[in-house]
Design brief:
Length: about 110
C-alpha cells in the first residue's frame, strides 16, 4: 500500500529554516518522480519543487528559487525539502506527492511569523 508521510513543519520566524521530510512506504522513491506542493489559506495549490526519478532534474516555483532545495535519500526512502530564508508568504500546508498514481500525503503545516 502506497503511503506518504510528511513531517518537519512548525512555527519559524522570518529568515529561519526548516527541513521537511516525506517518508515513502509501499514503493521505492528511486523509481518515481516526486513533488512538493503547498496550499496557503485562500490560495490555489502550488507546485513548489519537483525531482526526477533519477534525481538529475529538479525544478522550483519562481517564488522559492534560491531558497528551497529538494533532495532524496533512496536508502531512507525519503524526500526532503530544505527551506531557507523563510518568508511569511511561505506559510502554508505542505504536501508530498507521487505523480504516478496521484498519491498524496496528509501534509505538514509551516507557519512563518514573528
Amino acid at each position: 500500500q502506497v503511503q506518504l508521510v510528511e513531517s518537519g513543519g512548525g512555527l519559524v520566524q522570518p529568515g529561519g529554516s526548516l527541513r521537511l521530510s516525506c517518508a515513502a512506504f509501499g514503493f521505492a522513491i528511486a523509481a518515481h518522480n516526486m513533488n512538493w506542493y503547498r496550499r496557503a489559506p485562500g490560495k490555489e495549490r502550488e507546485l513548489v519543487a519537483a525531482v526526477s526519478l533519477g534525481g538529475g532534474t529538479v525544478k522550483y516555483a519562481d517564488s522559492v528559487k534560491g531558497r528551497f532545495t529538494i533532495s532524496r535519500d533512496s536508502n531512507k526512502n525519503t524526500v526532503y525539502l530544505q527551506m531557507n530564508n523563510l518568508k511569511p508568504e511561505d506559510t502554508a500546508m505542505y504536501y508530498c506527492r507521487r505523480p504516478n498514481g496521484d498519491y498524496w500525503g496528509k501534509g505538514t503545516q509551516v507557519t512563518v511569523s514573528s
